[in-house]
Amino acid sequence: MPTRIGFIGLGRMGLPMSRRLLAAGFDLTVHNRSQSKVQEIALEGAHPAQSILEITQASDILMACLPDIATVEELFLGKDGIIDNAKPGQILVDHSTVGVKTSKACAEAAEKKQALFLDAPISGGTERATDGSLTIMAGGPQAAYDQALPVFEAMGATVRHIGPTGTGTTVKLVNQHLVCIHMLAAAEAMLLGAKSGADPEQVFEVVNSGWGQSFMLNRNAPAMIDRDFEGIRTQIRVFLKDLGLVHELAQELGVPTPGADLARQLLTKSVDQGLGDLDGAAIVLPLEVEAGFQIKRKAE
């Protein structure tokens, strides 16, 4: 077991992931722009770091879970950032959802410092981050993955080495491709069933036990029925960012993605209407406006 783990980024995913590392007995140092989160987990046993330099020097394996590409590139590639301060043999891990170009740039910069980089994005949401059952898909050197595997297994139930640098990121984008298409399909189907006069709870129960079932139907249908669109899990704007990365990869590879393109159009419309900070299930709201009908629980 590596003796010193660092974790940067204590947001909705990073904080519960860090708690899993503490629960597994790792010696954990943490850093976050909001020091209140650092102090919160420091009370649970983590060592607080005041700077990127401090946490990089204190870690054998340094992990980050960050909100967007700009932040990843700033912290990994920027002046006095993670790679600037990296040590030979150190393993650097990015759990964020970024593009393949960003992952490859980080790996190339790390190699110049004789450090090892893994793109290891995650899937499963805050619920699975909390219970340690995330899916973790890693790209990069096999030797680095082998060393990091016990750390990953403290946070994830399905942990795989996909291949060379960028392949972890690619598989995460494939995942988000499907997530967003299924999210749109679930909204369309629930609205179609409810407006026809069927009880939406029955629509959900029956379809979710048949071939039409999907994780996103299971996740989003209750939110639609309960009108619970508060963005405390993953917001529409985050899904739109991910579909932008999917579109970029598809364009580069020359692969048509008409389903993802349609989902991106509707997510863009939702953001333009001011719904970007709502939960992904709120993708149904523009459809309800067009349909002149709102999904709601049947009166008792």
Descriptive overview:
This protein is α/β, with parallel strands linked by helices and 300 residues long. The protein has 2 domains: 5-164, NAD(P)-binding Rossmann-like Domain (Rossmann fold), CATH 3.40.50; 171-291, N-(1-d-carboxylethyl)-l-norvaline Dehydrogenase, domain 2, CATH 1.10.1040.10. 52% of the residues lie in helices and 13% in strands. It has 13 helices and 9 strands. The protein has a 6-stranded parallel sheet, with helices on both faces. Strand 5 (91-94), helix 5 (100-112) and strand 6 (116-119) form a beta-alpha-beta unit.
In the sheet with the most strands, the strands line up as 3-2-1-4-5-6
Tell me the name of the CATH homologous superfamily of the largest domain. NAD(P)-binding Rossmann-like Domain
- What is the annotated CATH architecture of the largest domain? 3-Layer(aba) Sandwich
Please tell me what the overall shape is: elongated
What's the number of extended β-strand segments? 9
Number of domains: 2
Give the uncertain stretches in residue-range form. none
N-to-C CA distance: 56 Å
Report the order of strands and helices.
EHEHEHEHEHEEHEHEHHHHHH
Q: Helix proportion of residues, in percent? A: 40-55%
Quote the CATH topology of the largest domain: Rossmann fold
Count of alpha/pi helices? 13
